[in-house]
Amino acid sequence: MKKELCITSFILFLCILLAGCIPPKHAKMTPLGQAIARQDNRLVQDLLNKGADANEMVDCAGLSDLVFYSPVLICAAGYGNNDAIKLLLDKGVDINAKSSGGWTALSFAAYRGKSKTAQFLMERGADFHIAKALLESYAAKYPNPSNFPHVDYKLALKLLDNYSGKTEQTLAAPAPSAKTKDGISTSFIKSDIDELPQIKAKPNNNAHAIVIGIEQYRQKLPPAEYARQDAQLVADYLIGAMGYSEENVVMLINDHASNVDLAKYFEKWLPNNVEKDGTIFIYYSGHGAPDPKTGGAYLVPYDGDPSFISETGYSLKRMYDALEKLPAKEIIVALDSCFSGAGGRSVIAKGMRPLVMNLQGSLSLSRNITVLSASSGDQISATYDEKGHGLFTYFLLKGIKNEDVIKPDGSIRMDDLYRYLKPQVERIARKQYNNEQTPQLMVPKKDR
Question: For residues 199, 201, 202 and 205, what is the CA-based torsion angle, rounded to 10 degrees?
Fold first, then answer.
């Protein structure tokens, strides 16, 4: 009898213990949380005005199991929904409120790679030290990055350090990419494209993207200014406006964009994920380089060396060969780079002369691949300092935002986008930099 009583007591104790671990019934994605996830901020404001609890606890496990029971502010940070964050803060929400696991909105924004949201939260007074301490504790527990860059805690720490005006090496130094213009850090320049467009394409689970931004290089090459934040913004547009699901967008930034990383995602991840009649979007912002021996054009990965470009670079031919094997109906490649070695976003081995690259003549594109590049073969790809972006990328995104070039299914009317983008880039390059930069649209020959 005593034995049975002990077993019964143990089972009762176990049930009580487990019940204490189960979040309350309201820990679910509420109407307010759903509106924030959809970026329907008019509904967010309406719900708050009608009495929705701005401090409610919700289940953000759809974003990460780390925040299954969190203030709705943290979910908004995870989605990169700055407008919703502002509405919540205006209702008096504590900007440093924590989830059941100790996460804050700032730490979770960094974890999710939402650089603009991390910047916004710090501007509004989020505690950098609380967020940094939490990420450092996770980085110590899990030192090896996963296959998906957003969950690399070291990368999240770098993002925080950059946007706090600090670096990983010394807490007093400015971020390595932070130039100044009229005394203002360009990391904090606001431009009209930084807010996502109002367009909302239908969700497309068969749309995949690889977004690459390499600003700093292991070989101490000249930085490709704004490449990192350009890549982040392109990813935000794809997810927030063009119908791409976040799990289908791979973002490779700086040291996560090595030669091996590019090969892995182009040659393994895409074939394993893209299904018949899918859509693929490739974006690259960083240096290009020529091979003076063969005349080939190469993307320069984080660990690329222009002196050994055929061994350490990732050639455009290799990329196109990998893409044309895929069963996609549409593949768009956008290159904010140049390949002559003449400067801008291009490099060349020391002692070599720049080359005139005939990118169009040397390509034999598959029927489903369209390439939009920042400049012609003998030109450089410039930055647009007053906007805080690459010149090509700025007008690429401005065209997507303002020129009605996105179809309901999320695909792009490339001819319309090119007709808008080309004269704009040419005008600014000539007017502000006394430079010629003519974007190129490359399509299969039979489609020209």
Answer: -130
In the chain, what is the greatest distance between 2 CA atoms, to the nearest angstrom? 94
Average pLDDT of the residues in 125-144: 76
Q: Is the pLDDT of residue 286 over 90?
A: yes
Residue reference for tokens 């296959």:
147
The per-residue pLDDT for 424 is 96
Q: What domains appear along the chain, each with residue ranges and CATH number? A: 21-163 (1.25.40.20), 186-447 (3.40.50.1460)
pTM metric for this prediction: 0.62
In DSSP terms, 185 is beta-bridged to: 180
Question: Which tens digits make up the pLDDT trace of 397-436?
Answer: 999 999 999 988 888 999 999 999 999 999 999 998 888 9
According to the 3-state scheme, what is the secondary structure of the chain? CHHHHHHHHHHHHHHHHHHHHCCCCCCCCCHHHHHHHCCCHHHHHHHHHCCCCCCCEECCCCCCHHHCCEEHHHHHHHCCCHHHHHHHHHCCCCCCCCCCCCCCHHHHHHHCCCHHHHHHHHHCCCCHHHHHHHHHHHHHHCCCCCCCHHHCHHHHHHHHHHHCCCCCCCCCCCCCCCCEECCEEHHHCCCCCCCCCCCCCCCECCEEEEEEECCCCCCCCCCCCCHHHHHHHHHHHHHHCCCECHHHEEEEEHHHCCHHHHHHHHHHHHHHHCCCCCEEEEEEECCEEECCCCCCEEECCCCCCHHHHHHHCEEHHHHHHHHHCCCCCEEEEEEECCCCCCCCCECCCCCCCCCCCCCCCCCCCCCCEEEEECCCCCCCCCEECCCCEEHHHHHHHHHHHHCCCECCCCCECHHHHHHHHHHHHHHHHHHHHCCCCCCEEECCHHHC
How many degrees, rounded to 5, is the angle at CA 259 between CA 109 and CA 308? 135
Give the residue from 215, 181, 354 showing the smallest Cα distance to 287.
215
Instruction: State the residue for tokens 């406006």.
Output: 241
Q: What is the mean pLDDT of residues 100-104?
A: 83
Is 57 exposed, middle or buried, given 0-12, 13-18 or 19+ CB atoms closer than 10 A?
Answer: buried
Six token digits for residue 407: 């179809």
